[in-house]
Amino acid sequence: xxxxxxxxxxxxxxxxxxxxxxxxxxxxxxxxxxxxxxxxxxxxxxxxxxxxxxxxxxxxxxxxxxxxxxxxxxxxxxxxxxxxxxxxxxxxxxxxxxxxxxxxxxxxxxxxxxxxxxxxxxxxxxxxxxxxxxxxxxxxxxxxxxxxxxxxxxxxxxxxxxxxxxxxxxxxxxxxxxxxxxxxxxxxxxxxxxxxxxxxxxxxxxxxxxxxxxxxxxxxxxxxxxxxxxxxxxxxxxxxxxxxxxxxxxxxxxxxxxxxxxxxxxxxxxxxxxxxxxxxxxxxxxxxxxxxxxxxxxxxxxxxxxxxxxxxxxxxxxxxxxxxxxxxxxxxxxxxxxxxxxxxxxxxxxxxxxxxxxxxxxxxxxxxxxxxxxxxxxxxxxxxxxxxxxxxxxxxxxxxxxxxxxxxxxxxxxxxxxxxxxxxxxxxxxxxxxxxxxxxxxxxxxxxxxxxxxxxxxxxxxxxxxxxxxxxxxxxxxxxxxxxxxxxxxxxxxxxxxxxxxxxxxxxxxxxxxxxxxxxxxxxxxxxxxxxxxxxxxxxxxxxxxxxxxxxxxxxxxxxxxx
Length: 563
Known about the structure:
Blueprint: H1 2-33, E1 109-115, E2 119-127, E3 134-145, E4 157-170, E5 173-187, E6 206-219, E7 227-239, E8 245-258, E9 263-277, E10 281-297, E11 300-311, E12 321-334, E13 338-349, H2 353-359, E14 372-386, E15 390-402, E16 405-409, E17 417-421, E18 426-439, E19 443-455, E20 468-478, E21 482-491, E22 495-499, E23 505-509, E24 513-523, E25 528-535, E26 543-545, E27 548-549, E28 554-562
Antiparallel strand pairs: 1-2, 1-28, 2-3, 3-4, 4-5, 5-6, 6-7, 7-8, 8-9, 9-10, 10-11, 11-12, 12-13, 13-14, 14-15, 15-18, 16-17, 18-19, 19-20, 20-21, 21-24, 22-23, 24-25, 25-28, 26-27
Organism: Pontibacter oryzae
Signal peptide: 1-26
InterPro entries: Beta-barrel_TonB_sf (IPR036942)
């Protein structure tokens, strides 16, 4: 069909070309002969009709059936191909990164030293090293002076302690405890001078304290749980050379439940059963519960709560049952750096012979001990951090006390001290200030001052309670080679009352105390260090308690071995 169309098209083109050629020739002849071209008409007629035959369309002239699917059992054969062994040394080197070595820890040390006044100093500290499972250790110490500031060995002193401690870290839980034993030997050298040069029998003025403390605790304070708690149970026991003994079983609980990120609820509880054996037997119960709600309101910090406390004392018409409302309002304009606060509250403080004899070891036998009742306290203060180096703390308070104890010289033996109480309410105006500067591990400076103005109701003076106690301290680490420590402290004067032979009393005033202590350690190696301690550098035999002068300059030097 395509060939027929091509032939027809060629015939038309040749016909038109032939006519055009004749016309061109005639025009040339006419132009040459000067004749006129006549009109001509060419007619092309297409009369042929091209018809194509119909194509036959045949489907599925033959059909192929799909093959039938049958069951096929395929068998696999596994052959273990082994290469022949070849003794070839491959010179291959694996590049690794060198692990950083851990800094060696010296968790144990022994110290020994000698000084004037026949002083002997021994101390040992033993503890396990890097462990995320448990922490345990032991400490021993002994310091003694065979001579003292009065009548040589009549004012000797000796202190020895040994303790064991341990903690076990469980999943979200810590359990531990400690055991301590201490022995303290002193002499009542604050006696009045004897007439005719008579000597004091040393055995009659000796005092020996034996102290035992055992406690166990458990807490989850590192678990990050919303409810945090710490429970502690302890037993304290003390006896002396005058057949005095005291045993105290105490339990305390500290808990906090975080309601959300802005509020929390706290509950603290204290329980104590105490038995005191002296010329008579005394049992003293104690119980206290403190509940408080804390809330953050932007920059405001609000605490609302109350304390309920009970004491079994019957000294000086004691109030056995007490309730103390607690309100505190704080303002934190710069979070974490400045807090200004104020509030109202009160407290009942447990008092034991275990702690009193640590404060004043020259107590007389058969003293009456009572818990301190802080009935009302109005306070305000601030806490500030400056550039993470300077920390400031200040507090002002007006307090009302019942059964606030004072030390006064015993009427029969002024070398011993009685516990006396104000019959009414003792008002105290307190100002506390503290500032510290810490720069890395090199320089540390600090200042602390505590001022108390006592207004007694019945007592003539606040016996042996100075108004002002202050201290300035500092440490300097020189290239981890030399370590300096210094402390300058001040204790204001106080009063004691001496009963003379005729029954009259005389007030005795102690001098103000200014004491400077220095200590220097020089490290020869990581294991060996020598040290020198100088106490009371000004050499003043001051009296903290009436008739009890302190040592003059006391030097002590020795060596430390760490391992």
